[in-house]
Amino acid sequence: MNRPEPPADPSEKPSGSKWKLIVFAILAVMILSVGFLYRDVISLATLAQRESQLRAFQDQHPVAVYAIAFGVYVAVTGLSLPGAAALTMVYGWYFGFARALVLVSFASTAGATTAFLSSRYLLRDAVQSRYGASMKTFQKRLAEEGAFYLFTLRLIPAVPFFVINLVMGLTPIRVRTFWWVSQLGMLAGTAVYVYAGSRVPDLSVLAKEDVSAVFTPSQLLQLAVAFALLGIFPLAVRKILSALRPKVA
User: What is the pLDDT of residue 249?
Assistant: First the structure.
């Protein structure tokens, strides 16, 4: 007869995976605490008051500004913090359309890949327990459609991006594939948000008035059409690929 196993010793040290989770949690709390303490500094009203100072600092230290902006965006997306869309629009206002598009495109992909890798190597058990019900769907669709399934998810914001990053970390998709498909898939949405931000001429106007005071009715219509096309595009691509795909006899 097998003897029952003795109860676990409460003084036993946590396993390696638990230590990884603890370290990740500490880092996340530290970054969240800094963001909470300095939330007023990065508010829209405060940025509007310091707009001229920000422009002068950008002229004096361009490399440092881009490095800081890149790091902040990677931290926000890598830790799945809220506010990425608003941050994208702020970057569009601050850097202009072309430069902000390049910066946000690479920073958002780097942040998404950071979350992807943390899910695969640090938070596997936690993500599995939280999104285990969604894993079967992700695995099935990924096996059927390959990287195009990830591309479709990036274009249709029905599933939050942070969920895609975490769940995809538990699939067998390669890191390199995840990177380039995510960058390509998020590019259209990034361009729309950056364009919206680049149309803001003055933050003080945006801080005091609503969006209608900054955008003309025609510009608002253009943005609405852009977001509508963004949602329709992957469906159209799916239809085209289905029609071109050879049918099995």
Answer: 44
124-145 and 16-37 helices cross at what angle (nearest 10)?
90
Which tokens in the block code for residue 108? 């958002």
Q: Are 49 and 86 in contact (CB under 8 A)?
A: no
The more confident residue out of 207 and 170 is 170
Query: pLDDT at residue 104 above 90?
Result: yes
| CA–CA dist 168, 163 (Å, integer) | 8
- pLDDT of residue 113 exceeding 90, the answer is yes
pLDDT of res. 76: 87
Q: What is the pTM of this model?
A: 0.71
- Is the Cβ–Cβ distance between 188 and 108 less than 8 Å? no
Nearest to residue 197, comparing CAs of 94, 99, 103, 104? 94
CB distance 146 to 189 below 8 Å: no
Residue ranges of domains in the chain: 16-54+63-244
Q: For residues 98 and 94, what is the distance between their CA atoms, to the nearest angstrom?
A: 11
Region 220-233 average pLDDT:
72
- pLDDT for 175 equals 93
Least confident among 2-11, 81-90, 221-230: 2-11
